[in-house]
């Protein structure tokens, strides 16, 4: 799974960015200061970093310089500063791209995806043999594949992020659908039914989406 390290001291912004990252099928790792950035990069090995300039304890430019001493991980810098000198300092430190505040999460995601595509990082995640491939919204298993709709992909991706965790219908609407559609309980049940049918089409008898009555749904990996 693609990991995106988000270093942002404004917690509301960090949470919003992490939400969009999750929705796109990536794993967000969030820090709210520059203190543990280097240790986190070495331990988690993220595929790309979103790094704010103004951070407590250690600023973003310093973090970037230290990262560049041992890694070429792509870095997108967030900044409220718009002067040419500030951009030059960041570029000299090794930043790959800049996003100026205020920004839209959609724009940031497009920039992240552009860099991932340019660097050749595969846009897919694996989970016990099952693969979710965002390039076309395919579900793959043992050389076979079936196409998911956008909403089916978002729903299954959410469940696969944390196997065993139960998500209520309300949480699915908020986290998988981002409150952007008028999804009813019946619609979610229909999506779950369709996903199960498509999983079976891949010759998988195991029920990967388990219903916990009165609570919601959870992903159960293939053993």
TrEMBL record:
Listed Pfam families: Response_reg (PF00072), Trans_reg_C (PF00486)
Taxonomic source organism: Colwellia psychrerythraea (Vibrio psychroerythus)
Gene Ontology cellular-component annotations: cytosol; protein-DNA complex
Domain Response regulatory stretches: 3-116
Keyword check for DNA-binding: yes
UniProt entry keywords in alphabetical sequence: DNA-binding, Phosphoprotein, Transcription, Transcription regulation, Two-component regulatory system
Domain OmpR/PhoB-type: 122-221
GO biological process, one term: regulation of DNA-templated transcription
One Gene Ontology molecular-function label: phosphorelay response regulator activity
Name of the protein in question: Two component transcriptional regulator, winged helix family
Modified residues (4-aspartylphosphate): 52
DNA-binding region: 122-221
């Amino acid at each position: 799974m693609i990991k995106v390290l988000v270093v942002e001291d404004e917690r509301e912004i960090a949470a919003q960015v992490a939400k969009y990252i999750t929705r796109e099928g990536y794993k967000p790792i969030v820090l709210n200061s520059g203190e543990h950035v280097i240790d986190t990069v070495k331990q988690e090995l993220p595929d790309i970093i979103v790094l704010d300039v103004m951070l407590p304890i250690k600023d973003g430019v310093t973090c970037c310089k230290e990262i560049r001493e041992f890694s070429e991980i792509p870095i997108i810098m967030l900044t409220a500063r718009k002067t040419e000198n500030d951009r030059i300092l960041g570029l000299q430190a090794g930043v790959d791209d800049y996003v100026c505040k205020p920004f839209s999460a959609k724009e940031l995601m497009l920039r992240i995806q552009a860099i991932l595509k340019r660097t050749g990082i595969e846009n897919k995640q694996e989970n016990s043999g099952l693969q979710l491939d965002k390039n076309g919204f395919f579900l793959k298993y043992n050389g076979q594949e079936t196409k998911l709709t956008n909403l089916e992909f978002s729903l299954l991706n959410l469940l696969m992020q944390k196997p065993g965790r139960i998500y209520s219908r309300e949480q699915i609407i908020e986290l998988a659908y981002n409150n952007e559609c008028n999804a009813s309980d019946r619609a979610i049940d229909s999506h779950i039914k369709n996903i199960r049918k498509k999983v079976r089409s891949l010759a998988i008898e195991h029920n990967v989406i388990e219903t916990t009555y009165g609570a919601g749904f959870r992903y159960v990996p293939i053993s």
